[in-house]
Amino acid sequence: MELPDNYILIRKEVKHARLRVSEDGKVRIIAPPDFSEDDINSMLKKKNRWIDKNLKYFDGKSSIELKRNQLLLFGNRYAYFYDTTYSQKVTVDHEHKTINSKRDLLDPKVQEKWYRKVAKKHLTIRTNQLAENLNFKHNKLFIRESRTKWGNCSREKNISLNWKLIKAPEYVIDYIIIHELMHTVVMNHTHKFWTLMKSYYPNYKESIKWLEKYGNSL
C-alpha cells in the first residue's frame, strides 16, 4: 500500500494495531500480520486529527545543535578540548565557555557520568540556597534521570531533580527547583499553586516556554 514518505508500516506479532508519532516527524503504524490495508486506512482516517496534532506538537519544538567539539552546559555551548596530557581531569571556564579535560567527554558513558557529577553538586547547592532564601523546608534531595519529568516532590517532602537540567539555562533550573519546593506546601497544580509561583518567580512562564521548545534536546 502507498503511504506518505514519513509513514512507516511495521508488521509485528501484536494483539492490536497502534500508532506512534515520534520527534523525528515519523508516523509508525505497528500492526499484526493479518491487519488488512482497509483496516489500516480506516485507522488512519479515524486518527487523522490525533496524528496532525502530534506532528504539529513536535514540529513546534526546536533542537539545540552542537558541533562535535561542543558540550551543552547551563544553556550555553562550551568549546571542549581533549588532551590526555592535561594535568586536571576536567576544568570548566565559565567566562570563556570552554571545557578542558584529560577524559574523553565525547564518550557517551564518560560524558553522562561527568554531567551527573556536575548536576549533583550544582543542583544540591542551588536547591539549598533557594530553600533558605524563600523559606521552604524539604527533606531529602535526589538527582536522578526521568524520561517524563524534570522534577518531583513526594508527600514526605523528598525532592527529585533530573540531572539533565544541568544543560538548561540557570533561570530554567531555578524555576524547576522552586516549582518542586512549592510542592512542599501545595501538592497539586491548583490556582493557589500558580498564584504562589507567580509571587515567588514572576517570570516562570519564560522557563516553561524554553523547556517546551528545547527540553527534548537535553
TrEMBL record:
Tree of life domain: Bacteria
InterPro entries in alphabetical order: UTP_pyrophosphatase-like, YgjP-like_metallopeptidase
Start and end residues of each YgjP-like metallopeptidase domain: 15-213
Short name of one Pfam family: YgjP-like
Protein name, per record: M48 family peptidase
Source organism of the structure: Arenibacter aquaticus
